[in-house]
Amino acid sequence: MNDILTGYNLYKKHESAIDKQQTKSKEISDTQNETVKRLETVIGRIEDVQGVKAPKRPPFPSWACLAFLFWHWPMYGFAFLWQSKYFRRFCFLTAFFVMVLEFCIIVLLSYDNKDLHRDRAKYVTVRNWSLVEGDTATINKFDYVDFIYSDVKYRKDDIDALHETIRKKYDVMMENKQKQQNQNRCK
Questions:
Q1: Which of 81, 105, 155, 183 could be joined to 148 by an S-S link, Cβ 3.0–4.6 Å?
Q2: Which of 1-5, 27-31, 125-129 has the lowest mean pLDDT?
Q3: Neighbours of 130 (CB within 10 A)
Q4: What angle do the packed helices 136-150 and 156-186 form, to 10 degrees?
């Protein structure tokens, strides 16, 4: 209780000093405001008489606002979050999984590329074998397929027609095979 009473007495003793300081600060502020008004009127009169304009503040650049919104705030937030060890662990785990994903994609692409090279090697082998055997019909078919697939965008009708022909011949071949199997069962 004594501490509270001494604190209150001390406040009462200095209360008048605080009030004096506040009134003095208000007087100084009022004086400065009056001085600013007088200076503005004097500057205005000088501008009118001499035709000189006081320098104006340059306009606020719009890019600074964008930089503040899209760079400073996000970086401030990121720096704030980076102080957390859990956020740092999350970032490191995310970076690790992205790295693993990149590695898997590289492996998948290399495997797919290997399959494409193997298919191309088969294709070239069949073509060379047909050439050696003297089967010009097969070589001409390979050449025709190469020709129409060299420009897929403009040869789409030819490609569709070739696929339709192949499908029809395949259907006929399957029907013949089915008939032959039925005949073999009947025997």
A1: 155
A2: 125-129
A3: 17
A4: 140
Residue in this structure with the two tokens 């000189």, named with its chain if needed: 52
The string of pLDDT tens digits covering residues 94-151 is: 999 999 999 999 999 998 888 787 777 777 777 776 766 777 777 777 778 878 877 8
Closest CA to 144 of 156, 162, 132, 128: 162
Say what the alpha-carbon torsion angle 112, 118, 121, 125 is, to the nearest 10 degrees. Answer: -140
Which has more pLDDT, 96 or 186? 96
Q: How far is Cα 169 from Cα 104, in angstroms, rounded to an integer?
A: 41
What gap in Å lies between CA 177 and CA 183, rounded to an integer? 10
Residues 6+ apart with CB under 8 A from 148: 155, 158, 159, 162
* 3-class SS of residue 84: coil
Output DSSP code: residue 68.
I
